[in-house]
Amino acid sequence: MKEQMIPSHLLNICYREFEERLTISEKSGKKSSSYDIVKTYVNGTIGTFTKRDAMENCPSLGSSSVESALKKLVEDGTIIRKGLGRASHYIRKDAIE
């Protein structure tokens, strides 16, 4: 069986993404709440994002935890929700002011 080599540029991209995700969890700390983890992600975003984006960037959290954190962030005015249901997306409030 012939081994397949992974192109080095692909490995670099994967390592960068892993490092970014690791940085999010390090900034938020080991015992952080889902709210703190998602808020750290939100503060590092530019433009709009979806619940799925938040879930992909906060892999230690489940769907309901991310959803709950996003709801709290909307309630406290950190982010603004646009759209409904699957079409929902979010934007930081300070990004539009």
Question: Main attributes?
Answer:
97 residues; mainly alpha; two-stranded antiparallel ribbon; 2 strands
Alpha-carbon distance between the two ends: 58 Å
Low-confidence stretches: none
> Tell me, what's the shape?
elongated
Q: Describe the sheet with the most strands.
A: 2 strands, antiparallel
Quantity of strands, as a count: 2
Radius of gyration over all CA atoms, rounded = 16 Å
Strand content: 5-15%
Compute the average pLDDT.
84
Sequence of strands across the biggest β-sheet: 1-2
What helical percentage do the residues reach? 40-55%
Q: Classify the secondary structure makeup into a structural class.
A: mainly alpha
Along the chain, the helix and strand elements come as HHHHEE
Query: Treating each run of at least 4 consecutive H or I residues as one helix, how many helices?
Result: 4
Topology:
Layout: H1 8-28, H2 34-43, H3 51-57, H4 63-75, E1 79-82, E2 89-92
Antiparallel strand pairs: 1-2
Describe the overall structure.
With 97 residues, the protein is mainly α. The chain contains four helices and two strands. Strands 1-2 form a two-stranded antiparallel ribbon. Strand 1 (79-82) and strand 2 form a beta hairpin. Helix 2 crosses helix 4 (63-75). The protein is elongated and about 55 Å long. The protein starts with 7 loop residues before the first helix and ends in a 5-residue tail after the last strand. The mean pLDDT is 84.
